[in-house]
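Dear colleagues,

As part of the handover before I leave the project, I'm documenting each prediction I ran so the next person doesn't have to rerun anything. This entry is a single chain, and its sequence is reproduced below.
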Amino acid sequence: MGKAAENKQQKLEALYENAYELFLNHGIEKTSISDIAKKAGVAKGTFYLYFTDKYDIRDQLIAKVADKLFREAYKAMENEHIPSLEDRIIFIVDYILDCMQKNKPMLRFISKNLSWGIFRHAITSSLPGEDINSYGIYQKLLLENPEIRLRAPKTMLFLIIELASSTSFSTILENDPIPFDELKPDLNASIRAIIRNHTLPREA
């Protein structure tokens, strides 16, 4: 990487890092582009070289956080040598939700701004320096279990994400209607039911 490209990357990372901190501490609405640029130590015009507005950088931050969590969860799962597809998916979901439980400001930021459209962008777009996106990793996970045939694997992923996120955000942040640890067994059972509902019968 040349010096100009390295300088450009440093400015981009500074914008990401400082926007994330401001969003966590003050919220999206109370954070201006001028605030982000000033905290990152760059001119306001530099911000527009990378992003169209503050909602653009918000969406990209969510993509970065979601991608990072999924990759970490997948790597941790590989170290556990879990053979069953159901158990592997449960492990990944548990890992991500446990990380969010330990970092409630991050969860609050994501829960207020996450939509399926943003998450779909996060898992289907390769980030700089990555040669495969998170959905590609999901597909790899499925290919590693060739004995399991699924119908509509993208729909299955959508249902799991929607179920896990919508039920977990309120329980982690508000203990409503029950604490998260009490919810986990029922959540995992429901995820298993979704997987089984999308699993095709074995060929004779």
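The radius of gyration is 19 Å. The chain has a mean pLDDT of 85.

All the best with the project,
I.
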